[in-house]
Design goal:
Distance between the termini: 56 Å
Structural class: alpha/beta
Strand content: 5-15%
Number of domains: 2
Helix content: 40-55%
Largest sheet: 5 strands, parallel
CATH class of the largest domain: Alpha Beta
Radius of gyration: 22 Å
Length: about 325
């Protein structure tokens, strides 16, 4: 099911129907709005229609019972590769910081062999933002000289950071934050047991990201948001509030909640900034820039989670109203 991205679906399907399906598509937009889901549906539909029988559904969905859909769901379709960060064998349970260049080079094997199920082959990279520099150059060579009947679907949360030469060789589909009604529909499907009041509260806080909404429900992020918002609005003169957060998110096993917190802080500051003016607005804009920079840097260079959360707490506190002398 794709809700809220009807324009992207229409553009992709229109290109297929016209016989002008570009070999590389850049799926660009905020995290958690459905880009990877779109990529999986699009890849499945292209491979299913190519292998037959043709799917008659109007959107991009393919019936679950279709043999190609079953292969894709099992990750065993011989003509498809899904690239994402993999586990570091030297650190069990820890992913590499980037998608490795060897993973990109491994795509050559896919394109050098004859297709097994139809004439089409598909590669999805989730996300292309996470490529090593050498991996970006290796990908560029493939995009410059694409094999026949190949499809690249490149998921990107920050397309502006990609090599301009990669962007120029892709057709871009923009994915924007979802409207509240689309969010509600998706949550009704994903979390049918969620009470209406709780669903409405999550939709209001998720900023149009169904991924963030699901994280709110699964990781109890509401508690983290309340603690961060309190610092943002009231400050933290004794450092006690940010210390509590640092202890909670620095514990072993808190990795997913820590990662979600890194995304949460900039969005909270941005939301708060909309109602500010004067010096406080200036502090909020500066805090937003610093929090975004730290949120991106921390996982890339493996900064200590507790120290990072404490630092983010200080950035939140810098936005709070200053006492009148």
């Amino acid at each position: 099911m794709i809700a809220g991205h009807e324009k992207a679906v229409a553009q992709f399907k229109g290109a297929r129907a016209a016989g002008t399906l570009h070999h590389a598509w850049l799926l660009a937009g905020p995290r958690g709005v459905g880009k990877a889901h779109f990529a999986r549906l699009a890849a499945t539909r292209v491979l299913a229609d190519a292998a037959g029988p043709l799917v008659e559904l109007p959107g991009l969905e393919t019936p679950e019972e279709h043999p190609i859909a079953k292969l894709v769901a099992a990750g065993s379709h011989p003509d498809m590769r899904w690239l994402e960060r993999i586990e570091n064998p030297k650190k069990p349970g820890v992913l590499f910081k980037n998608i490795l260049v060897d993973q990109i080079r491994g795509l050559a094997e896919l394109f050098e062999m004859s297709p097994a199920m139809s004439e089409w082959r598909v590669a999805v990279i989730d996300t292309v933002d996470e490529l090593e520099a050498s991996g970006g150059n290796a990908l560029l060579k493939m995009l410059e000289e694409p094999p026949a009947n190949c499809l690249f679907l490149l998921v990107s949360h920050a397309p502006g950071r990609l090599l301009p030469t990669i962007r120029s060789r892709c057709r871009r589909l923009d994915f924007r934050p979802l409207a509240d009604d689309a969010m509600t529909s998706l949550l009704e499907v994903q979390l049918p047991s969620l009470k209406e009041a709780e669903r409405s509260r999550i939709v209001a806080r998720a900023g149009g990201s169904v991924g963030r909404a699901l994280a709110f429900a699964a990781l109890d992020l509401a508690k983290l948001e309340e603690a961060a918002t309190r610092i943002l609005r009231e400050g933290d003169p004794t450092n006690a509030r940010r210390s509590d957060l640092a202890i909670e998110l620095g514990r072993r096993g808190a990795g997913e909640r820590y990662a979600a917190f890194l995304e949460l802080v900039p969005s909270l500051i941005a939301r708060q900034a909309r109602g500010l003016e004067g010096p406080q607005l200036g502090r909020a804009l500066d805090a937003y820039a610093r929090s975004r920079e730290l949120a991106v840097l921390a996982p890339r260079v493996s900064l200590d989670p507790a120290s990072t959360v404490f630092q983010l707490g200080g950035i939140l506190a810098s936005v709070a109203p200053r006492p009148v002398p």
